[in-house]
């Protein structure tokens, strides 16, 4: 599964997922999705609610509007309302202090940047939610760039976020990119982008077997292990 390091150029860019990879949200995605479903009349305890949460779990890492379009079977108005309710519910939980950095995540990011590796945070959330998380954690100056789907950029598992990060930061070889995430959609994004290292982070949305099957080149117990994997202090 691992690539021989001799085949890779010097790594220059790390694209890291947020919730479940660098950020501990304690199940806030599902809680917010439950609120969003209920706001559209899909109440907890119903088969429709259970089916909706099943879709949410399967699509972890993807753009949330895409997820709600699937749940509401192409009803764009319902999907947009649910997405707005989701983002508001998640923002309220962030504002209540219910997100925190995963152990070692900030230190790993700092170590990568110290070693000359640019760090980009990617997510399936909308921009206001991503901004709220970054500000709550005090990470505004910790990373080089933060990207979300939209404005012509498709969310994961499409490669757009990673490739856009490479363009913005002047990376001229996709093999010089490492992508890390806890969902199969994070892994799919990295694989499609041609990243030299695509690291599955355990303990989040999807397990070891699923991440490996999606194409992870490496599996990490936590994102804190990433600098050591890449040979950084």
CATH class of the largest domain: Alpha Beta
Look at the helices and sheets and give the structural class: alpha/beta
- Annotation, overall tally of beta strands: 8
CATH-defined topology of the largest domain: Rossmann fold
CATH homologous superfamily placement of the largest domain: HAD superfamily/HAD-like
Q: What Rg is obtained from the alpha carbons, in whole angstroms?
A: 17 Å
How many helical stretches?
Answer: 10
Q: Can you give the helix content as a percent range?
A: 40-55%
Q: Give the uncertain stretches in residue-range form.
A: none
Strand order of the largest sheet: 5-4-1-6-7-8
CATH architecture of the largest domain: 3-Layer(aba) Sandwich
Distance from N terminus to C terminus (CA atoms, Å) equals 24 Å
What can you see in these coordinates?
This protein folds into two domains: 5-25 and 100-229, Rossmann fold; 28-95. It has helices at 28-39, 47-58, 64-71, 76-95, 105-114, 127-137, 160-169, 184-193, 208-214, 226-229; strands at 13-17, 23-24, 100-101, 118-122, 145-147, 177-181, 197-201, 218-220. The chain contains ten helices and eight strands. With 233 residues, it is α/β, with parallel strands linked by helices. Helix 1 (28-39) crosses helix 4, helix 2 (47-58) runs antiparallel to helix 3 and helix 8 packs parallel to helix 9 (208-214). The model has no long low-confidence stretch (mean pLDDT 91). The relative contact order is 0.19.
């Amino acid at each position: 599964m691992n690539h021989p390091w001799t085949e890779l150029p010097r790594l220059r860019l790390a694209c890291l997922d947020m919730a479940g990879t660098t950020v501990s949200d304690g199940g806030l995605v599902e809680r917010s999705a439950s609120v969003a479903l209920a706001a559209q009349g899909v109440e907890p305890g119903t088969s429709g609610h259970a089916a909706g949460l099943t879709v949410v779990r399967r699509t972890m890492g993807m753009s949330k509007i895409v997820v709600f379009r699937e749940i509401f079977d192409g009803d764009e108005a319902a999907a947009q309302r649910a997405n707005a309710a989701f983002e508001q519910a998640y923002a309220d939980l962030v504002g209540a202090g219910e997100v925190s950095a995963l152990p070692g995540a900030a230190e790993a990011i700092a170590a990568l940047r110290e070693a000359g590796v640019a760090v980009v945070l990617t997510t399936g959330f909308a921009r206001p939610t991503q901004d709220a998380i970054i500000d709550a954690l005090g990470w505004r100056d910790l990373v080089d760039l933060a990207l979300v789907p939209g404005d012509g950029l498709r969310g994961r598992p499409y490669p757009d976020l990673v490739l856009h990060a490479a363009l913005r930061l002047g990376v001229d070889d996709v093999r010089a990119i490492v992508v890390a995430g806890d969902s199969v959609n994070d892994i799919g994004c990295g694989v499609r982008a041609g990243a030299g290292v695509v690291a599955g982070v355990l303990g989040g949305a999807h397990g070891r077997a699923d991440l490996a099957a999606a194409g992870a080149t490496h599996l990490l117990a936590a994102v804190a292990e990433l600098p050591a994997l890449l040979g950084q202090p």
